[in-house]
Request: fold
Amino acid sequence: MPELGKYAAEVLSAYAVSLLLLAVLIWMSLRRDRRAKAALRAAEEGRDA
Reply:
């Protein structure tokens, strides 16, 4: 890891916040995907009946 000097706390906290936001975006996308698949499955089952 490179020497960050007196800005180490700021740089590392920026990395932490970025990784957290990325994880939240991925989680929200996966959740939306599951909901969309469930809605599509329900719509297709209703159409076939």
Q: What stands out?
A: The radius of gyration is 21 Å. The mean pLDDT is 92. The chain has one domain: 5-48. Residues 14 and 23 are 14 Å apart (CA to CA).
